[in-house]
Amino acid sequence: MNRHRISFTTAALGAGLAFLYAPLLVVMVNSFNASRLVTVWTGFSPRWYGELFADRQILDAALNSLIVAVCSASLAVVVGTTAGYVFARFGYFRGRAALSGALAAPLVLPDVIAGLSLLLMFVALEQTFTWLPGRGLLTIVLAHASFTTAYVAIIVQARLAGMDREAEESAADLGAKPFAVFRAITLPMIRPAVAAGWLLAFVLSLDDLVIASFVSGPQSTTLPMVVFSSVRLGVSPKINALATILIVVTLALLSVAAWMGRATLKQK
């Protein structure tokens, strides 16, 4: 009976993994297809990777996406770490429930609604403060940081909630200032959680299409936007090559984030 149950569980797990990852494997295999038609296999060739790195539009969009992802993830780490510290270390205070709800809202709010709301806010700011620059990379950075901050705050809060406070309390008893305690004791102990939050925010920003489409300007096209506009006219073999590179990079970053998460758990 147990043997049949294990066999069924293994088969169900294998079917689920195949359903999730078989399309990705098909894309990766087709990126080495020599044919221009993605539905016809004519032989192995890495030519599309060469054409991909010769495409100026894709390279510029990739650079924009990297700039946005790095800046938004860094901003999200600063704000999210502060928010996570406040929720974990401070007790009840006026407005805590409202602040907690506002922080968690991006986790459940549809991307279309979030993008439209941010667009209306940026348009209103441009009309009120005429000296502000128009929509561009800066608005995308702020928009991405607005929803990735919640993920960083949750990770940092969870780490702080399970951390022993004896070292912090001992330093405070010896006369250390709160900022000195945070810099010398708290921050090194939560560093793996902060790094994991940064990596997660980076991947989420790099992958975003909907919100960036709302808040971007004509000279601030990101890589997902270029891919989406390209596949609407048919899948190009260069897009398969690009997708393969993104899959490898994303898996590498997620693996590093998972490793840092395990390191955080071992410290508890």
Q: Outline of this structure?
A:
The protein is mainly alpha-helical and 268 residues long. It contains eleven helices and no strands. It has a single domain, classed as MetI-like fold (Orthogonal Bundle), CATH 1.10.3720.10.
Description:
The protein has 268 residues and is mainly alpha-helical. It has a single domain (63-267), classed as MetI-like (MetI-like fold). It has helices spanning 2-30, 47-53, 56-89, 96-108, 111-128, 137-161, 166-173, 178-207, 210-215, 223-231, 237-267. Helix 4 packs across helix 6 and helix 7 (166-173) packs antiparallel against helix 8 (178-207). It is globular.
Key terms for this structure?
MetI-like fold; 78% helix; mainly alpha; 268 residues; 11 helices
Largest sheet: none
Q: What is the CA–CA distance across the termini?
A: 39 Å
Q: In DSSP terms, counting alpha (H) and pi (I) runs of 4 or more, how many helices? A: 11
Low-confidence stretches: none
**CATH topology description:** MetI-like fold
Q: Over all CA atoms, what is the radius of gyration?
A: 23 Å
What percentage of residues falls in helices of 4 or more residues?
A: over 70%
How many independent structural domains? 1
Number-wise, the strands total: 0
